[in-house]
Amino acid sequence: MKTLAVLARKGGVGKTTVAVHLAVVAQQAGKRVLLIDLDPQRSAAGWWRERKAETPELVEAEPRQLPEILAAAAEDGIDLAVIDTRPSAESDAVLAAKLADLALVVTRPAILDLRAIGATTELVKAAGRPGLVVLNACPPGRDDAEASIVREAREGLVAYGLPVARNSLGQRAAMSHALIDGRAVTEFDGDGKAAAEIRALWKEISRWQSINVAS
Ligand SMILES: Nc1ncnc2c1ncn2[C@@H]1O[C@H](COP(=O)(O)OP(=O)(O)OP(=O)(O)O)[C@@H](O)[C@H]1O
Ligand SMILES: [Mg+2]
């Protein structure tokens, strides 16, 4: 079993959106996926309750339960665990990062979001686990070129010492609409741009050296 932790000390950057979407896309790619909701707001669990399908599986937990939940999931034959965390508690993020094969640090590309990212990149590095920054809610680019704010964000992020995913996610209404009734964009509008972006991000992550679950 491989474990992805989705982190950001800043609120509202898209942790739950990214966690839920990656869990569904991985499941659609044939993996048995467990989504672990560590946020007391229970946003991922709320999404799951609206969902018609039983998969991906979901567990709501206190952070201190995480080691035993991961051990039980591995024993049970889960291929991928995706952990959604709350922004406010550093200790939750540290624990999730320490237990992850890859810690995804989610940020929006705007300057105030980027300035806040150091707290999260530092804790991932201190946890000694591989990390990857995911740019979320990016303005659309033109043709194949990324928007200038995204290009500038990539340049600025070099200073934080974690790699940045080549595949970013756009600011797309479908990304939030799909969640209303417990779906993901790949189920809501599978041929749309948002679905293509999340599939491309999953492909990149699934081939990441410390994850390597691509089939
Ligand atoms: N790529 C996107 N396109 C459009 N809307 C998005 C995107 N990502 C996130 N959002 C919207 O931004 C808001 C915050 O997203 P989300 O709840 O996933 O963030 P979060 O980091 O989990 O927040 P919290 O810190 O409160 O847990 C939501 O309304 C969500 O629908
Ligand atoms: Mg959240």
Structure report:
The protein is of the alpha/beta class and 215 residues long. The protein has helices at residues 15-28, 43-50, 66-75, 90-98, 111-115, 118-127, 148-157, 173-177, 185-188, 193-206; strands at residues 2-7, 33-37, 57-60, 80-84, 102-107, 131-135. It has one domain: P-loop containing nucleotide triphosphate hydrolases (Rossmann fold), CATH 3.40.50.300. The chain contains ten helices and six strands, in the order βαβαβαβαβααβαααα. Strands 3-2-4-1-5-6 form a six-stranded parallel beta sheet, with helices on both faces. The chain is globular and about 45 Å long. The mean pLDDT is 96. Magnesium ion binds at residues 15-16, 39, 43, 84.
Q: How are the SSEs placed, and which strands pair?
A:
Elements: E1 2-7, H1 15-28, E2 33-37, H2 43-50, E3 57-60, H3 66-75, E4 80-84, H4 90-98, E5 102-107, H5 111-115, H6 118-127, E6 131-135, H7 148-157, H8 173-177, H9 185-188, H10 193-206
Parallel strand pairs: 1-4, 1-5, 2-3, 2-4, 5-6
Helix pairs in contact: 1-10, 4-6
The structure holds adenosine-5'-triphosphate and magnesium ion (MG).
Magnesium ion binds next to helix 1.
